[in-house]
Specification:
Length: 369
């Protein structure tokens, strides 16, 4: 960097002058990365109502802790002493066992929670999910898709701070390491912003559909199982590949990617999985749903479990069921979950193993909404 203009914009893209940014950074004291952890925790505690000023009525009451997986009718079904298991990302684990995740116990009050709605909107908008048995009515399918997308957008909004928060994490490193670190940080930021745009577009569509009661804006496939499932989930992602790993969408395309939205529900003696997508020609969600529906009935629950673990983090397990799994089954689920930690925007590549059954109930029916 000899002879570089000290007053020019820094090469890292921070918009600061070079002398105020990366000049002599290799000689600076490394930052405490726990500051980033604290900032991240604060970002995921921000309170906002996604239904404010969008035509769904005025807000009322405080912003509450909403649950994208319903606590009473669903999480309670799989909880043991009020607790469930979920995967936790912890970079410190990489030093000890080579993995980035472990399984941890959480209370159902904290599971799947986010501060995304005021008390009134949470109570009114989601009454058909919280106070009624899930019967896969068009309104229920639209409502759960809206709530799930809201949580995903909340998470991407909360992650927007990472580039600023971690910008100084390369202090004390060599110049080449600084270049690599800032390049990775830029990739992560660009990927997060792209996901925010895509989720925002879908969120706006679903919001408009709720306002105008256009329940047919999305389509859904409903799988009913002959017994309870020992896991619950709700999430959405932009599928780049189908169930068998073949390309569905091009991440390099200028077009916004479409999402697939998944959620599960419990009834007295059965379980329901809802897979939804925005109804457009060639919708990736429909392609994936059709592939799952064509599997033998005894394989569908295992396929859904593996597919969801691979692509979303908002999944919770019955503690007794998970602890009784064979170690090979646990390792495979953890492998899928870690493969889905897609910090650089590349699609997960882990294969779903159809031969693993996980001792789950067969499906009774598959219906289309």
């Amino acid at each position: 960097m000899k002879g570089r203009d000290r007053n020019a914009r820094c090469w890292c893209g921070s918009e600061l002058k070079y002398k105020k940014c990366h000049l002599a950074r290799d000689a600076q004291k490394p930052e405490n990365l726990w500051n980033a952890v604290s900032a991240n925790k604060k970002a995921f505690s921000e309170r906002t109502c996604f239904a404010r000023d969008v035509g769904l009525g005025p807000c009322e009451g405080k912003i509450i802790r909403a649950h994208s997986v319903s606590r009473g009718p669903n999480l309670n079904r799989i909880a043991v002493d009020g607790h469930v298991l979920t995967y936790q990302v912890d970079p410190r684990l990489k030093r000890t066992n080579g993995s980035l995740i472990n399984i941890k116990e959480v209370g159902i009050n904290q599971a799947s929670a986010f501060y995304g709605f005021c008390g009134l909107h949470d109570r009114v908008l989601f009454s058909c999910l919280e106070n009624e048995i899930f019967a896969a009515t068009p309104l229920q399918c639209l409502t759960v898709a809206y709530r799930t997308i809201s949580r995903e957008l909340y998470g991407k909004d909360a992650s927007a701070h990472l580039r600023t928060t971690l910008h100084g994490a390369d202090k004390g490193r060599s110049l080449s390491d600084q270049f690599l670190f800032q390049a990775k940080l830029s990739e992560i930021s660009l990927g997060n912003e792209a996901a925010r745009r895509e989720l925002r577009a879908t969120f706006d569509c679903l919001t408009s559909a709720l306002v105008h009661r256009q329940v047919n804006l999305i389509s859904s496939m409903i799988i009913e199982f002959d017994g309870q499932l020992p896991f619950m989930f709700a999430g959405a992602w932009s599928p780049l590949t189908d169930f068998y790993g073949r390309q569905l969408q091009d991440v390099c395309s200028d077009q916004l990617l479409e999402q697939i939205i998944v959620s599960s529900f419990a009834a007295e003696s059965r379980a329901i999985v809802c897979i939804s997508w925005r109804e457009i020609e060639g919708a990736p969600g429909r392609i994936v749903a059709e592939q799952i529906s064509m599997l033998p009935s005894e394989e569908q629950a295992s396929a859904v479990l593996q597919f969801v673990v691979k692509h979303i983090e908002n999944i919770f397990f019955n503690p007794d069921w998970y602890r009784d799994l064979e170690e090979t089954h646990k390792k495979h689920l953890q492998y899928l979950a870690e493969d889905g930690l897609d910090f650089m925007g590349s699609p997960p590549s882990a294969l779903i193993r159809r031969e693993i059954g996980f001792d789950l109930p067969p499906s009774l029916s598959v219906t289309w909404q």
